[in-house]
Structure to design on (137 residues):
């Protein structure tokens, strides 16, 4: 039986669309949540670091940061050693909101884990990591 690559691609698109559209209680978009999670994990970071890590344009990062700053979740800070360098970090409001948003995401995606046994979950993680690594993600 020949592998139907189009079917795999369609299934991946459907899964991504479903996850993205089923965040009804979330106050953040998926990319905003990922940005806040990244900053939480890495501390104070430069926007260019976010762009490089997410493989998106600096303009896209600036747009995300602008939105998160307006909402009081991030703040821009001038680097003490070089005032031309701007970094971003989570505010207390951002630190407080993050665990709630992660819980909402995990809850809304629980069906993924419920449909797989422990071994399959490990296999899924390994496959996704392998795919992402092959593209430098």
């Amino acid at each position: 039986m020949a592998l139907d690559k189009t079917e795999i691609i369609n299934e991946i698109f459907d899964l991504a669309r479903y996850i993205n559209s089923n965040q009804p209680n979330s106050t953040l978009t998926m990319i905003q949540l990922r940005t806040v999670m990244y900053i939480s994990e890495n501390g104070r970071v430069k926007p260019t670091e976010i762009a490089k890590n997410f493989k998106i344009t600096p303009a896209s990062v600036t747009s995300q940061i602008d939105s998160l700053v307006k909402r009081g979740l991030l703040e821009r800070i001038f680097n003490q050693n070089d005032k031309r360098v701007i970094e971003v970090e989570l505010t207390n409001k951002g630190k407080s909101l993050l665990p709630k948003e992660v819980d909402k995401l995990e809850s809304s995606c629980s069906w993924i884990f419920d449909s797989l046994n422990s071994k399959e979950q490990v296999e899924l993680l390994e496959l996704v990591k392998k795919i992402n690594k092959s593209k430098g993600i």
The two ends are 31 Å apart (CA to CA). The domain at 5-134 is CATH 1.10.10.10 (Arc Repressor Mutant, subunit A). The first strand starts at residue 74 and ends at 78. The helical segments are 5-21, 30-42, 47-54, 58-70, 92-108, 110-114, 118-134.
